[in-house]
Amino acid sequence: MDDASGTLAALNEAIHDAAKVKSRDDMNVGDIVYQTMDRNDGLTLNKGYDTRNKLFVIVGKKSNGEAVGTCLINSTFKGDAERQKFQYTIRKDKYPDVAVLTSDSPLDCSKLFRMNVRKSVAVKAEIVGHLTDEDKENIIQLVTSCGFVNNHDKKVFRIGID
Fold first, then answer.
1. Neighbouring C-beta atoms of residue 54, cutoff 10 Å
2. Residue 79 pLDDT exceeds 90
3. Any idea what DSSP says for residue 27?
4. Residue 158 in contact with residue 59, Cβ under 8 Å?
5. In whole angstroms, what is the distance from residue 100 CA to residue 68 CA?
6. What is the pLDDT of residues 121-154, one digit of tens each?
7. Distance between CA atoms of 35 and 56, rounded to whole angstroms?
8. How far is residue 136's CA from residue 57's CA, in Å, rounded to a whole number?
């Protein structure tokens, strides 16, 4: 729905533009990001897809800010029972403003994805929300304690380091 002068369309565009990642300073631990990803990002793609729009949480950041460590939000629990111990449910009711989060969804803290911030800028990633302090603390603790995420990556992305 729009008005005759296009005010609503302009407002909608301004809101989306404000959420776009423009530099490394825009991406911080606890941000919920919506972005196009591909095989080069570590995704396994099926059914002929070359890319997928994914929702992820930033759980760590390199000291120079050029890359972030992320965990993906999935629609269902993934992996064996041991990996499922490291999945944290992101509750939709806590994040009503995150439109792309359509239901309670598991965040897979058993696998860390490296994301170059330049790519996020290039694909016009959007910061669609930010974790509550409680969820952020619980998720960082879960990633920190996860043996599936190697200690080198935890250090590089300063995970669990205040």
1. 20
2. no
3. -
4. no
5. 21
6. 999 999 999 999 999 999 999 999 999 999 999 9
7. 8
8. 9
- Which is more confident, 79 or 65? 65
Q: 142 near 88, Cβ under 8 Å?
A: yes
Token readout for 162 is 């205040």
Parallel/antiparallel/unpaired status of strands 31-38 and 87-90: unpaired
**Does residue 30 contact residue 138 with C-beta atoms inside 8 Å?**
no
For 1-26, the pLDDT digits (tens) are 556 666 555 545 555 566 788 888 88
Give the residues across from 115 on adjacent strands: 68
Q: Which pLDDT score is estimated for 33?
A: 95
* DSSP H or E segment with residue 131: none
- Assess contact for 154 and 60: CB atoms under 8 A: yes
User: What residues does 58 pair with on adjacent strands?
Assistant: 70
pTM above the 0.90 mark? no
Position 133: which residue type? D
* Local structure of 158: helix, strand or coil: coil
Structure tokens, 49: 């897809």
Helix (H, G, I), strand (E, B) or coil at 35: strand
